[in-house]
Design brief:
The complex is a heterodimer of chains A (305) and B (359). With 305 residues, chain A is mainly α. Chain A has helices at 3-30, 38-56, 59-83, 88-110, 122-125, 136-142, 147-164, 167-177, 179-184, 189-215, 228-238, 243-262, 264-267, 277-294, and strands spanning 114-116, 126-127, 145-146, 219-221. In chain A, the strands form two sheets. Chain A has a two-stranded antiparallel ribbon. Classes of the chains: A mainly alpha (305), B mainly alpha (359).
Chain lengths: 305, 359
């Protein structure tokens, strides 16, 4: 595989955790709940998938347990942020800190610097698509990923259907547009918001699993999500919570990650600056969006937000 | 009702407010922390007991507690003044990192100077870096209506990546076996006072606290912060130049954050490493402290001392128990979670709350 192919193959792979977090997280975004706990839930997903794969020997069971734990974190987030009406940013931050601390704590208690699932061999999980595999460039980029990777790209369509073609999706968008109106027509807004956050939690558990089990081949290291949850939030904001555009940003940010990873051989640590790209892009996109939005409006006085 | 009765009622409510909104969440966090400690087979009570003994009732420990509290007081204040105005500067961590990094560069690269001059220069550079970072979200918010929370959160990561790049590349100390910038010169270091860890930086932090206290309690800015925090549209309608005030508040916050990072560099770390700010970091600690102190300057100082004692106590008892020091971060996460909710609104009492829940 030459460098360009490697970069693109890695981009497809690096985009997966971000994409899953984006596709799950956009529901909370559309329901007008700013969920920055994606990062922490993803970390819990990574840690517990890896831990339970080691202890139970079953990857599938481990995934299931990781989902349960991630959803529990989501419920805690919802309880404090939605039911008790705490500041959701601060609640999210608390979940992130707690996830980072409790995983580090457990690593220390086990006396390990990292978790390694020896029985987990990624190569066995990689699927080679019959015909595409033989196409020169395309084959080496698109073929040879795990089922989870393909599923997460399929999830774009799935989540689009959930958002635009189901009752739940309509409710989420109505709640986000106007909570009072939603309540007036009898929608249980709190339940809808809980549901939106829970979808994000499930997706983040998969995202964490992809990171630990596919990308690193069965290894958990401390704070390994390294801001991917925030990159997902950036992608959601840039794509305005729409499945297609948000996923596109996720792929773009995946490419940035891949460039940072692969170009470091040539450019040294300067390649690391690609990691900062998503954060700078979101600021630029928010600025442009805001300028466009207020360009033709004349608002007297100061407008908050 | 006589004036005295009203006042007594208010004081009573305030005390109840502190109890329910600040002390109960802390106790709750320690309770869950105790369960975690018990789960690893250690005695929570003796662990907590040792912690307090080591950080408060031991001369070295006490000096260290004060020393660690210095930057925490500053980051706590930096967050408190913005939160009070309902502006959310989540970038305190990034501002402290930038301030610390470039204070360290100036401390290492300039030739030996008179200590007072060198230290002041480094602190000024730190303050400048914090201000530069804070200006970005401030301008975006004041003039383009961009949400400052998202911008500051994201710029933290951008700043951290950029600093890692700089410390791995241009400014790397080749002699060090790990990623670090060169050690700052002796003339840029704060001197340790009286044998312990305490340095002059703590007193700078206290001076900043007194200045902020004066400004908030007696100055016009304090009133304006309060007004903007309560209702920004009304403040604007009443003739306050809200845009300019947002800039002032954010710049002040950024300056204090930068100072915190610079001081931490000159009094404790002496070189920038990837663990410069600690885990989870000075800025995030500051957020907990500000929440704990109900965004009030005096509350912030009390909370900073408390939290510093917790950190110092834990790092010291690690030698004696099997409980990893990460327990502090666990408890911190829980505290922030429990503190995120205002259980008791201003003007209501515990009885009202209970009655509402029951009835």
């Amino acid at each position: 595989m030459n460098v360009a192919d490697k970069i693109l193959y890695d981009a497809v792979l690096s985009a997966v955790p971000i994409m899953l977090a984006v596709l799950g997280g956009m529901f909370a975004h559309r329901a007008n709940v700013l969920n920055i706990a994606l990062e922490g839930m993803m970390l819990l997903g990574s840690f517990f998938t890896c831990l339970f794969t080691i202890s139970t020997g079953s990857y599938a069971l481990a995934l299931l347990l990781a989902i349960v734990i991630s959803v529990t974190a989501g419920l805690v987030f919802s309880f404090f942020g939605i039911t008790l009406k705490g500041n959701v940013i601060i609640v999210g931050l608390a979940i992130n800190l707690f996830a980072s601390a409790i995983t580090a704590f457990m690593l220390q208690v086990m006396g390990k610097a990292e978790l390694i699932a020896h029985g987990h061999v990624v190569a066995n999980l990689r699927l080679h698509i019959p015909f595409i595999d033989d196409v020169p460039i395309l084959g080496s980029i698109v073929s040879g990923h795990t089922a989870l990777t393909y599923a997460s790209y399929l999830a774009i369509l799935l989540m689009w259907i959930l958002m635009y073609r189901t009752r739940f999706g309509v409710y989420v968008r109505v709640v986000g547009e106007s909570e009072e109106a939603a309540r007036a027509v009898g929608i249980k807004t709190t339940a809808v918001k809980y549901g939106a956050v829970a979808i994000g939690a499930i997706a983040c558990a998969f995202a964490g699993a992809s990171l630990a089990m596919d990308d690193l081949g069965g290894i958990f290291t401390k704070d390994m999500t390294a801001g991917r949850g925030f990159i997902a939030i950036a992608a959601i904001f840039c794509g305005r919570g729409k499945p297609g555009p948000s996923a596109l940003y996720a792929v773009a940010f995946g490419l940035a990650r891949s460039l940072a990873l692969n170009l470091s051989i040539y450019a040294g640590s300067a390649a690391r600056l690609f990691n900062a790209v998503p954060y700078v892009i979101i600021v630029a996109v928010l600025l442009v969006a805001s300028i466009v939005k207020y360009r033709n409006s004349r608002q007297r006085g100061f407008l908050n937000e | 009702m006589s004036a005295r009765a009203v006042r007594r009622g208010l004081v009573g409510h305030r005390l109840e407010g502190v109890l329910v909104n600040s002390i109960a969440p802390v106790l709750g966090a320690f309770l869950v922390g105790a369960i975690v400690i018990a789960a690893v087979g250690e005695n929570p009570l003796s662990t907590y007991g040792r912690m307090i003994a080591r950080s408060l009732f031991d001369p070295d420990g006490l000096l260290r507690t004060l020393h660690v509290a210095g930057p925490l007081i500053l980051t706590g204040l930096a967050i408190a003044i913005t939160f009070k105005a309902n502006i959310f500067n989540m970038g305190v961590e990034g501002q402290a990192l930038l301030g610390g990094f470039f204070a360290g560069i100036v401390g290492a690269q300039l030739p030996d100077l008179a200590p007072a001059v060198h230290v002041s220069l480094c602190l000024l550079v730190g303050v400048g870096c914090g201000v530069a970072f804070a200006l970005v979200p401030a301008i975006l918010k004041a003039f383009f209506h961009v949400n400052e929370m998202v911008v500051t959160l994201m710029l933290n990561y951008a700043a951290a990546e950029a600093l890692t790049f700089l410390s791995e590349g241009v400014f790397r100390d080749k002699a060090a076996g790990y990623v670090a910038t060169p050690m700052i010169r002796d003339s840029a270091m704060f001197l340790k006072l009286s044998g312990g860890d305490l340095t002059g930086f703590f007193f700078i932090a206290v001076a900043v606290f007194l200045a902020i206290l004066f400004v908030v309690r007696r100055g016009r800015l304090g009133y304006e912060i309060e007004a903007i925090g309560k209702n920004i549209e009304f403040a604007e309608a009443a003739g306050m130049r809200v845009r300019r005030k947002i800039l002032v508040i954010m710049v002040l916050s950024g300056a204090i954050s930068g100072l915190a990072g610079a001081g931490w560099m000159l009094s404790e770390r002496f070189r920038y490493t990837l663990a410069f700010s600690g885990s989870p970091g000075l800025g995030w600690d500051g957020m907990l402290i500000s929440l704990l102190g109900a965004h009030d300057p005096i509350g912030v100082v009390v909370a900073a001392l408390f939290y510093s004692a917790l950190k110092v106590g834990m790092s010291k008892i690690e030698l004696f128990t099997e409980v990893p020091r990460e327990i502090v971060s666990v408890i911190q996460g829980l505290m922030i979670l429990f503190l995120s909710v205002r259980y008791l609104a201003r003007g209501t009492s515990l009885r009202d709350l209970l009655r509402r829940r029951v009835g």
